[in-house]
Amino acid sequence: MSVTHPAGFVAAGAAVGIKSTGKKDLALVVNQGPTFDSASVFTSNRCKANPVLWSEQAVQDGTVRAVVLNSGGANCYTGPEGFVTTHRVAEEVGTLLGIGAIDVVVCSTGLIGLANDRDVLLAGVNTIHGQLSAEGGNDAAEAIMTTDTVSKQVVVQGPDAAWSIGGMAKGAGMLAPALATMLVVITTDAVVPAADLDAALRAAARVSFDRLDSDGCQSTNDTVTVMASGASGVTPSLDVFTAALTEVCTSLAKQLLADAEGADHEITITTLGAATEDEAVEVGRSVARSNLFKAAVFGKDANWGRVLASVGTTTAAFDPANLDVAINDVWVCRNSGPGESRDLVDLAPRAVTVTIDLKFGDAEATVWTNDLTHAYVHENSAYSS
Amino acid sequence: MSVTHPAGFVAAGAAVGIKSTGKKDLALVVNQGPTFDSASVFTSNRCKANPVLWSEQAVQDGTVRAVVLNSGGANCYTGPEGFVTTHRVAEEVGTLLGIGAIDVVVCSTGLIGLANDRDVLLAGVNTIHGQLSAEGGNDAAEAIMTTDTVSKQVVVQGPDAAWSIGGMAKGAGMLAPALATMLVVITTDAVVPAADLDAALRAAARVSFDRLDSDGCQSTNDTVTVMASGASGVTPSLDVFTAALTEVCTSLAKQLLADAEGADHEITITTLGAATEDEAVEVGRSVARSNLFKAAVFGKDANWGRVLASVGTTTAAFDPANLDVAINDVWVCRNSGPGESRDLVDLAPRAVTVTIDLKFGDAEATVWTNDLTHAYVHENSAYSS
Any idea which of A212-226, A296-310, B259-273 has the lowest mean pLDDT? Predict the structure, then answer.
């Protein structure tokens, strides 16, 4: 019930025949107001899918009244006809809701390079429009799943439960900086002007979705849209709202990580003692992208040498002879040499922490990733996406 | 017989007890002159192994008279005592050969973070010194193998066979730009002053070793050293010598690629129509580092969408709506949309070509990589390195 928990929102999700499996494949989330403020962030990939090309224009004025999302086809690299399909879907939603198509965000996910069936999509939009309800959040969250094994939802209450934020997300691979095949819809009944929503979303995404680096690959379709209905009549301070929105985004990011394709371990990489936060992120990301280190974690090998080898490829400020590394809080590397025995590290549990102390400054940052497993290779070699 | 093919060189390789397996683990290549010109390139990783820290100093004056290489231990992140071990090995070689330690390059490869047994190494140096011969090239090439399944050697003749270049290499993983756990010794009996050798080596490495990106990981120990004995008495033009040296480096790079850990496919990625060669390399490297694309190749899936998604992460100049991609010469993507059927692509053979046409400029470049396989994950999770 996540995105329909805040007042002023209805949603629906159903199987309309886009997926050949008969699973749910189309979702619609509608803001009924009284306010229609919104903010969005998109993939930074320059090769963008048609829905992103459309939605980037649709969100320009800060008003979004509905988000329509389909799984079963990404509508990416499908040429001008694919863009027409996206546009027609937005128009159909607009007509049914009595709003302008330009206030409709469109999201698609699934295989890229194959055209979606326009007629199936348009008929599906009519079907789910008839199913919109204040209880439709679960169905909507299920309808955007692709290789996800569970739906991802969250609700965070404001002070005194005077307002709330609800969110849903899909994505189980291609997670990378600046987003990934990750579709996220967030709703709130707080009163938040579009400019404030934008500031809050960028602040929240910077320390949540942007710190997730499952496999270094960057999707073509990523979209995060937040809509504020104002239905609670309460206007929170920007700080309080930003904190709650950050909690929502962090929860969804961690749910995405937990369901990443084929992962055996969730790895939390914290870099301490950096000159700047950006450098701490750069160091963490370099380790998150080391196939060698990620394969070692899969093999339950506390291989701190592969951590140092990754850190050494960055431009961060540090003394290469004076680095400390802990794995699961065992300081296996001290001053760039052997520390406590790596045999003390138990890598059987799913959660793994890596702590890197650059011993240079006061900044720190955390990046999340997964291990590199046989199941990852299987899932990404046996199935197209 | 590669490194001992050119006149003026002797070599040896033997099992001296560094590896517990009893396999060959120590090699020595000696330039007997009359000239002792040399050039070297090293890993650009900032966390360098002790042998690299030593050898970077040893090569400064352009004179190298011997290279000693051990497998079975990388002497990396082993602290000040590890550096003393490297220095003592150089001194021992120098004493035995009657030359200065500062003219001895030291290379090590194997597990990082564990100290090498200094006494075993020093005794081993004495052993192989007694085995130096003009027929020792094969033994030396075998003694530097770690997870390599075959030794890598090459000989290229100059015009009229007046001089030659021989080379040996090891490395089967961690191959990445700016070198990788790759140890290479190249010898020539041509007369080539150190400054010319340096120019020739940098030109050759730029289009060979630096274009190899097996798994994006960058080693701590990479070293390439070329030594010129002048024993042929022939001074080739710099252009002719550079071309021959490039042939040597390209052959060794391709041998490394062919033996990369767990690979099922060798992927040659050529980027056409780029504004600059650097941008062509950036585009090729982005695809070479896409785990999703590499897993697709393993699964024999001609997934051009994953190619475009990688290209879109680069800063190269192109129109995202106007890209062409061929896989094994089938143009599966035209103008960023579907082209010929991907079913026409046969990915059963080991060799795979990917051609990306940015349709923007006249520059092009080729980058080589491997697919991402179950065997890669197995080799890098089940064994430490």
Answer: A212-226
**Which one of A35, A78, A181, A187 is the catalytic residue?**
A181
pLDDT tens column, B16-52: 999 999 999 999 999 999 999 999 999 888 888 999 9
How far off is chain B from A2, nearest CA to CA, in Å? 31
Nearest CA in chain A to B82: A337
Interchain CB distance below 8 Å, A77 and B336:
yes
| Residue of A218, A312, A377 with shortest CB distance to B220 | A312
* pTM beyond cutoff 0.80: yes
Query: In the predicted model, is pLDDT for residue B213 greater than 80?
Result: no
Distance CA B294, CA A152 (A): 28
Instruction: State how far Cα B217 lies from the chain centre.
Output: 13
**What is the model's pLDDT at position A274?**
98
Interface contact B340, partner A, CB < 8 A: no
Residue B115 pLDDT level (bands cut at 50, 70, 90) = confident
The residue among B270, B267, B266, B333 whose CA lies nearest residue B305 is B333
Within the 118-137 window of chain A, which residues sit less than 8 Å (CB to CB) from chain B?
none
Closest residue in A to B342 (Cα) is: A113
Decide if A216 touches B, using CB distance below 8 A.
yes
- Closest residue by Cα to residue B121 from B208, B27, B260: B27
Asked if A291's CB is within 8 angstroms of B77's CB, the reply is no
Cβ separation of B46 and A382 shorter than 8 Å? Answer: no
Beta-bridge mates of residue B73: B109
Whole-angstrom Cα distance, residue A200 to residue A370? 27
Contact indicator for A307, A354 with CB cutoff of 8 Å:
yes
DSSP secondary structure, B198-249, as one string: HHHHHHHHHTTGGGB-SSS---S--EEEEEE--TT-----HHHHHHHHHHHH
Nearest CA in chain B to A297: B381
Q: CB–CB of A337 and B301 under 8 A?
A: no
CA atoms within 13 A on the CB side of A76: 33
Taking the CA atoms of residue A259, residue A30, residue A205 and residue A110 in that order, the dihedral angle to the nearest 10 degrees is 40
Q: What does the mean pLDDT of chain B come to?
A: 91
CA–CA dist B291, B293 (Å, integer): 6
Q: Which chain A residues are closer than 8 Å to B385 by Cβ?
A: 292
The whole-number pLDDT of residue A241 equals 97
Distance spanning both ends of chain B, measured CA to CA: 28
Task: Enumerate the residues of chain B whose CB falls inside 8 A of the CB of residue A180.
Answer: none
- Identify which of A132, A136, A145 has the alpha carbon closest to the alpha carbon of residue A18: A145
Amino acid at B334: R
A-B contacts (CB, under 8 Å): 190
Beta strands in chain A (DSSP E): 9-14, 26-31, 37-42, 66-70, 104-108, 152-157, 164-170, 183-188, 223-228, 266-274, 324-327, 330-334, 337-338, 351-357, 363-370
Listed residue (A190, A180, A123, A183) closest to A160, CA to CA: A190
Contact B69, B222 (CB under 8 A): no
| Average pLDDT value for chain A | 91
Distances (CA, A) of A196 to A9, A184, A200, A239, B18: 20, 19, 6, 10, 64
Q: What is the pLDDT of residue B350?
A: 93
| Rg of chain A (C-alpha set) | 22
